[in-house]
């Protein structure tokens, strides 16, 4: 093996590391941060005091991380579990103290046939394992969104209404 890249990712030890899409790397460190890296450049990161105001940094620490390509699953030393959108780190799912103590690992259910049976109608499923000797399945409900054809229809309607209002307000405008 040959070292290709070396850089300082965290102050202190790295608790977990996961490879993501587009050669991105996700790290969870003892410095209470979770970071997404592209080569040696920080793409984005999470810190407890920014994402969960009122909860002191020292009370929580990211312990485990996994990146499915679409989602980032996180576990903490206090037993909490979260799912974030991978590219923006927007939190979609959070269970405070899902486990009684340290979450040692998290993994997304694969999108294979057996995995689809576990998913049901949900967008993602995350398994968490903790020191409390429990394994829990966390299901992310499917987010509702507008179909593209409906969005285009609404935009076209908005343009027509705008033109009609301009014509009404300024006769002879067109």
UniProtKB/TrEMBL annotation:
GO BP field: endoplasmic reticulum to Golgi vesicle-mediated transport; protein transport; regulation of COPII vesicle coating
Primary residence: endoplasmic reticulum
Claim: Repeat is one of the keywords in the record: yes
Top-level taxon in the UniProt lineage: Eukaryota
Chain segments annotated as transmembrane: 146-170
InterPro entries, alphabetized: Sec12-like, WD40/YVTN_repeat-like_dom_sf, WD40_repeat_dom_sf, WD40_rpt
Bilayer topology term: Single-pass membrane protein
Keywords: Endoplasmic reticulum, ER-Golgi transport, Membrane, Protein transport, Repeat, Transmembrane, Transmembrane helix, Transport, WD repeat
Subcellular location field: Endoplasmic reticulum membrane
PANTHER family named in the record: PROLACTIN REGULATORY ELEMENT BINDING PROTEIN, PROLACTIN REGULATORY ELEMENT-BINDING PROTEIN
Name of the protein: PREB protein
